[in-house]
Amino acid sequence: MSAAHDVAINLIAYPITLVIGFFGRWMLTSFKMHGDRKLWKPFLGGDSLAIILTDKPGPRTPKVSVSEVQAFSDLRSILNSLGKEVDIQIGSTANFQNLRKRRFVCLGGPKANPATKHILDSLPNMPVTFDETSGGFKTASGGPFTEVKASNGVDTVTDYGLIVKISKLEKDANDSCPVLIVFGLRGAGTQDSVRAILTNGPLRKFMAESRNSNYCVLLKFNKKNSSNPCEMKFSGTF
């Protein structure tokens, strides 16, 4: 074949390759968007979605965890892409009278976020609980599941996070809305749990399929295992 013939073939093949690549990316984006919409469907109606962060007293204004701010940013990005506006609120000043008719997400555990504690205390039959004495999670079959440090006492080898979704904050109220709680044993665990919601296939599948139920998921983070960094230690509805 002549060089001119090769050039002609390349000129024809190049735009075809571009179109195929563009179409492939579009299909992947559309597929993920469809999955996101199913997963987040209970939270897409009504007014803006409130995301409640933990805070600590500061010299002038409350201090918010950097990990939770990043988690908030990640959640806001995906929800905005689905057409949902979000606003940030602080746990220590959250007004449940105002929130009871709103969809909202709590970031941070019951030791740090009063909103999380208020909700979990109202759920006596939770299949996974946070044990304040051990600082870990417990299930009916085991635990406590606590953070595991490396031999240097600094690096984390194993961590855990919990995701709880309640279909109605007040089960007997017709106008009550769904709530999602996400937290880890530390701020990093909360951020890892949010990332798992956005990227972990088995978790996303479970959340989408269980979107009309109350459910909880205990996540295990394997910090030193790149082939299996996140797994569902427990998942179920209640």
Unreliable segments (pLDDT under 50, ≥5 consecutive)? none
CATH architecture: 2-Layer Sandwich
Instruction: Output mean pLDDT.
Output: 88
Q: Into which percent range does the helicity of residues fall?
A: 25-40%
Radius of gyration: 22 Å
Largest sheet: 8 strands, mixed
**What's the tally of helices?**
6
Task: Report the CATH C-level class.
Answer: Alpha Beta
Structurally, the number of domains stands at 1
Distance between the termini: 69 Å
Q: What coarse outline follows from CA principal-axis ratios?
A: globular
Topology pattern, helix = H, strand = E: HEEEHEHEHEEEEEEHHEE
Total beta strands: 13
Question: Which band does the percent of strand residues land in?
Answer: 25-35%
Structural class: alpha+beta
CATH superfamily: Chitobiase/beta-hexosaminidase domain 2-like
Q: In CATH terms, what is the fold-level topology?
A: Chitobiase, domain 2
Short description:
With 238 residues, the chain is α+β, with helices and mostly antiparallel strands.
Explain the overall architecture:
It is built from 6 helices and 13 strands. With 238 residues, it is of the alpha+beta class. The chain has a single domain (3-237), classed as Chitobiase/beta-hexosaminidase domain 2-like (Chitobiase, domain 2, 2-Layer Sandwich), CATH 3.30.379. Strands 1, 4, 5, 9, 10, 11, 12 and 13 form an 8-stranded mixed β-sheet that branches. Strands 6-7-8 form a 3-stranded antiparallel β-sheet, with no helix packed on it. Strands 2-3 form a two-stranded antiparallel sheet. The longest helix is centred in the N-terminal third of the chain and has 38 residues, at 3-40. The chain is globular and about 80 Å long.
